[in-house]
Amino acid sequence: MKRSIPTAMVGGSFDPIHLGHLHLVHSVVSATEYRRIILVPVGRNHFKPEARPASTHHRLAMVHLGISAYRDLYPDDPPIELVVDDCELNRVGISYTYDTVKALYLKYPIKGRLAVVMGDDLLPQLTEWHGYEALKELVTFVIIRREGNNHNFGDIAADLVYLDNPLLEDSSTLIRDGCRSLKAEERLPHKIARLMPTEVAAYIEENQLYRP
Questions:
Q1: This prediction's pTM
Q2: Is 116 exposed, middle or buried (0-12, 13-18, 19+ CB in 10 A)?
Q3: How far apart are CA 107 and CA 140, in angstroms?
Q4: How many domains, in total, are found in the chain?
């Protein structure tokens, strides 16, 4: 049986995974004691119901390629367990964080509270999340900077930890938009490929993802 270690989950579309996602993991590992990071690709995103992501197969493949590149990118990080969990992709309907948290507690030996890593742009709506009152009793919310705003969160009963990470662009949108502007069989330009691990860029090119 796996040992119990401090664990954090990072949810997202990962459409596709990019260097910003991996730097976020690095920021969490560098600033906290979490040594198991679980990446959870969303199925049907509650916050972006209109989104039409790449297929589950392709997104999972790219996430695995991304985490394989992590150690080469951050060789000085302490040893961590980097995991991909497909529980939300296998769930019917909209994916709620509360349901995912319960599933992860059942699946992994977690020391202390599970951390839910989220952007500061979502903080104003946190109390409106499905099952929030129960969720806040189960987790620590690790808040990353996306907008750089100092949101005042009114629920003092919630356990929040703020990270002072650098602000990064939404590279997934840049990558998808860049690919949609290419002609058939046209190679990814460096300005797009450089946003991802080399292996992910090669996968997108090989499978002609996000093309018009």
A1: 0.92
A2: buried
A3: 18
A4: 1
